[in-house]
Structure formats: C-alpha cells, structure tokens
Amino acid sequence: MNNPLWQSNLVPQALWSSLPGSRQGAGAFTKHQQTNNQFSPVDYVVLGVFLAASLAVGIVASFIGRRKGNAEDGSAGSDEKEEFVMGGRKQQVIPVALSLLVSFNSAILILGGPAEIYFNGTMYVLSIFGEQIGCVLAALIFVPVFYQLRLTSSFEYLELRFKSRLVRLMGNFLLLINNVIYMGIALYAPATALQYVSNGAIPVEASIAVSGVICTFYTAWGGLKAVIWTDVFQSVVMTAGILAIIIRGLIDLGGIGNVWQISYKYGRIEFDNFSLDPRVRHTVWGLVVGNGIAYSSTFGVFQASVQRYCSVKTMRQAQLSVVLVSLGAIFFVVSSCLAGLIIFAYYANVACDPSAAGWIEDSNQIVPFYVMENLSIPVVPGLFIASLFAGALSSVSSSLSALAATTWEDFFKPYWCLNATEAKATWINRLFIVCYGVSAVLMGLISTRFGGTVLQASLAFTGSFGAPLLGLFSMGVLFPFVNKYGALVGSVCGLIISGWLSIGSYLNGKQLVGLPTNISNCDVGTPGTTLLPTTVGTTQAPVVEPLDDWYSLSYVWFPIIGSAATTAGGFIVSLFTRGYREEVDEAFINPYFVRFYKFLSRSCNINLMRATRSNAVQPVDDAEAIEVSELSKQSNSPSRQGDDEPKPVDQSEDEVQPGETTDEPKPVDQSEDEVQPGEVTDEPKREGQSGEEDRPVADKKTD
C-alpha cells in the first residue's frame, strides 16, 4: 500500500483534514529535523534540583521525626530502632496511602502504561478493576491480622502461625527475589528515558548507578519516615509529569473526541475481549482476576506494604490507607493510558510511527520521544524526566527499607543480635540498606537485557515470584488446617511452576500482537501503511514443541497459576500429614473466617479448625487502647502506700508482709489480694508464674 493513510479506507480524509496540525502533504517527519530534541541546560538543572530536593526532604523528615520522638519520649535515642524501621507507629493516613501508591505505581507505569496502549490497545485499562479488588481483599483479609499482631516483619507471622522457622525463611527468600527484580526494573525505566533525551550523553548504566546511590543514601539516613515523606513529594512530581503530556496532547489534537476517533480507526479501542484463551495477551478475565490476585499480594503481604500500614495509629486507619491506594491507582492507570492514546493519535495524525521507522531503540522510549518533539519548552522535559526518577526512587527506597527490616528481624536479631542496643540495631539496618542498594543497581544493569515494555517485565516477574508468597500467607491466614509441611512444600511448588512459566515465556517471546501502524510520511524511503506485529519479548519463533503453548500464556495469568499451585500443594500435603488435627491460635486466622469455621462446626458438624483462644494477643483497634495499655503498665510501677510504710503492689515474688507466718509456704500470686498479718495457708508455694502466661504471642519464639 503506497498511498498515504489519509487517502486509504482506514481513516477518512475528512477526519484528517478536520484535525488541527494535520500533516497532509507535509514534508517528511523525522526526529532529526527537530533542533530541540535534546535536554537543554535548564532541563539538567531541573532534574538536578529534583534529585537534591529528594535528598533534602528525606533528611529533613528524619530530623523532624527524631526531635519529635525525643520530645514525646523524654529521652534521646529512646526506641531508636522502632522509629527508624516503623516510623514510631504514629504516621498519618494520607502520607502512608500516598507512599503505598507511588511505591507500586512508579516510572514503570509512567513509561510502560502509555507504551502498552500505544502498541497493544486499551484493554490494559481494565486492570484498574483488578487493582480495586486486590486492595479491598488486602484490607479485609490481611490487614486485620498483621496489624493486631504489631509485627515489624510480616514473616514473623509465618513462624508464629506454622511454628517453623524454615517456613519463615522461605517467605523471606521469595520476598528477596521479588523485590530485587522489581528494584532493578524500576531503576532501568527512567535510565533508558534519560539516555534518549540526552542523545546518549548519559548512558543507562550511569543513570542507574546515580539514582541507586541517591535513594540508598536518604533511606539509610532517615528510615521509614524519610521514605514516606519523600514519596509524598515525589507523588506530586509524578502527577505533574503525566498531566503535562495529557494537557499538551489534547490541545494539539483538538480534544479527546479526535483522539478517540483516530485510536478507534486504528483498532486501539477495545474493552470487550472476553476470550477464555489464556494465550490472549489481555482479556477481561485475565486483567480483572489476574491483577486482583497480584495486587492483593502487593498491598496485603509484601513487607513494604505491611511496614507502612502498620505504622499508623489504628487498624481502621491501616485499612483506610490501603483502600485509598485503590482510588489513587485509578488516577495513575487511567492517566497513563490516556497519555498512550494521545501519543498514538499524534503520530497517526502526522502519519509516521517512530517505532516502525526505527527511530527509537525500544518501545519504552516512545514517551520520551514524544516529550522531546512536543514538549520541548525549557523546564518541561526536565520535569517529565524528574517525574520518572520520582517514581523510581519511591519504589526502590520502599523496597530497601522493607528488605532491611526483614533481614534484621528474621536473620540477624534471633541469632547474633538478640541483646543489641537500639543504636546498634539502627546502624545494622542502615548497613543492610546499603547492601541491598548495591544489589538493586546490579539488577538494574541486568534489566537492560529484558525485552518488551518495562510494565510487562515488572508484572510478569514480580507477579510470578510474588504469587507463591501470596499463596503462603493465604494458607496461614485463611486455612487453619494447613500445617508447616503443607506451607513449605506448597510454596516450593508454586515457585517452581510460576518461575518456569515466566522465565520460559520471556526467553521464547511467544506473545505476538498485530495492530496497524503508519509510516507513510516518514523520511525512511519506505512509505505506506504497515500492519506490523509488535513482538513483546525476543525474536518470534514458530510453535514446534508442546511446551510452546505454555510459554504463550499471557503474563497476567502467572499470579493466578503460581498462587493456585502453592495452595493446592499445601492442601494436599497438609491432608496427608493430618494438619487438621493441629491447634491454631485464633489470633493468626482472619476474624471473618474464624466466624465462618465456627458456623460450619455448629450448623453442619464440619470441623475444619481446632482453634485455641489465648488472651496473648489483644486487639489494637484504636489509639486510646494503646494509651490505656501504656498507662496501665506505668500504674503498676509506683509503690502503693500501706499502713506504716510503702510496699510494692505486685507481691508475686518472695516479699513477706509484717506479722506474716513464714514457717509454712503460701501462694505467690494471690491476684493482688494482700495476705493479712498472721494468716496461715496450707497451699504449697507456686513458683515460676511471674508473667509467662501473659506474655504476648508475638514475643514467643519457636525452636
């Protein structure tokens, strides 16, 4: 087809002539014709100011937090590690919600979202429904359990629930793989954009290293509080960057109506693919169910999320912070997808697809290409690249803080640093942050070898390795008849299956999407309209082996397959090892499911839970309950006045009251009832009851 697209039947000529800025009959359009397609000195200054501001916000937030904490506690250095890792558990809902939002909606979404829409159509927009489902499930299923246990590491729960340190370490291993991969992809996303806008003057490797050092520094310096408030600042920058694209694009194309018409003519508008074939890249079922499973794991059990929603004052606030994330996710997903449509409509309008013309090296550079062609006003390109780095820094800093907290609580503290001071524990956590920062940079360098959009790479790898983690926690929180053997074997099965699928799919690159593109007005010597398939991954190969069907599965199904394999394996092994006979503390099971199992036991005589009800874990539902608990502890320490001289309130030790007969033993614990002078008891003295029964479950360790 040699005639321009506006003369073909695909897009009517009237439509093209009605569009503002139409390039009918215009000269060739190439990026080299633009004189301002590189970063200007002003843009470099804007980017530098943003990076410096991120450092400053993190440092200032940490100083303010320390001064406020010392003023409240009355002593410098009091509970320093708790302040560093958990922000003192006194954070506000809105900052925590924004931190959660930008931690998992980063530069990956700002670059990958528009690229996904540009090349593959609008089906991805339906993922917002999956995110809503995932956030609601996380708030209802996981938050009530983890918040009331008041844990620092979410993997402490696994040891308490399954009475096995090996299961706890397995969970840590899954988190480590997931977070390191995610940090690497997050660092790579803005680096490839900066390389393009600088025309190669700043290589990808240098950008990855610099951004890794910056976020490692302010995370190690200020801890969770610095991460949260830096995320708030970075969320504003991310919003400004994505809105700049949308506003300028709508002005250039004459409104959303024209954008919609052009995108529809090229087959980019699609919302009704209900295919049951799991090999179809995006379907309603895959996006809603698959993303629902993936995001319930992300916001429910990932340490970065648990660490944040456990840092607020009440459980209601914790649940609210997770629900607010779902509302913010709607904005970021819809705005990034709208930006993708606008970019596609613009290049369809000028009849030249930069990707098909070979002017960009990979699909992730389509957004910066558009920015440099159409938003070349000084400051604006710098602001956009800053928004990409904002998303990357927020994601990486959150993962660094989470990994350091779990490494301390799960590996070092129980074995080597049980009696470490608060100051020593804080500095060890800082050392862990630095080590994981180095691993993030190395993974970022490896990510340069990945194909396809960064969005697909992130969802495919983190979804596949996060799925066994979700299955592991789900078995603990929802199914009391699953024991430690089932949890361990099930998580291994899920890891093997989901990892095999994700790696095999990426190496074979089977997913092929063919949507129309146009290069008729490109100065490349091959005018005309093309229907070039966009290969996501590596080189397309013919299907010649039975396993190729498995490698052709859409990446959105990996979380479902991985979590299902984990749960199924856990059920089977627990059945054969008689897990249903083991007793489980109700505090470790979701309260809604506790009621459900009790209902089955009463009404249907189906006993799936042998639960115990210890008073070891008291629900922490509001700040008042916490304050009352603290006051009650303080009230036991002052002495209580007697008739003649002061005496301790708690007489659970060997104190003898004046006039008391001591020839015969007496009970030690008399529930604070004083023994009258001269009173003789016949009961033997009971020792060893100085509080062991009342010790919180979360403090009891298993062998």
UniProtKB/TrEMBL annotation:
Its main location: membrane. The keyword Disulfide bond does not apply. Gene3D superfamilies: Sodium/glucose cotransporter. GO terms for molecular function: symporter activity. It is a multi-pass membrane protein. GO terms for biological process: sodium ion transport. Residues 641-650, 682-703 have a biased composition (Basic and acidic residues). CDD domains: SLC5sbd_NIS-SMVT. GO terms for cellular component: plasma membrane. The chain crosses the membrane at residues 44-64, 93-112, 124-149, 169-189, 201-220, 284-302, 322-347, 382-406, 427-447, 453-473, 485-507, 555-576. PROSITE patterns: NA_SOLUT_SYMP_3. Residues 631-640 have a biased composition (Polar residues). It holds the Pfam family SSF. Residues 628-703 are annotated as: Disordered. It is found in: Cell membrane. It comes from the Eukaryota. Keywords: Cell membrane, Ion transport, Membrane, Sodium, Sodium transport, Transmembrane, Transmembrane helix, Transport. The keyword Acyltransferase does not apply. Belongs to the sodium:solute symporter (SSF) (TC 2.A.21) family. This is Sodium-coupled monocarboxylate transporter 1. It comes from Macrostomum lignano. The lineage of its organism: Eukaryota, Metazoa, Spiralia, Lophotrochozoa, Platyhelminthes.
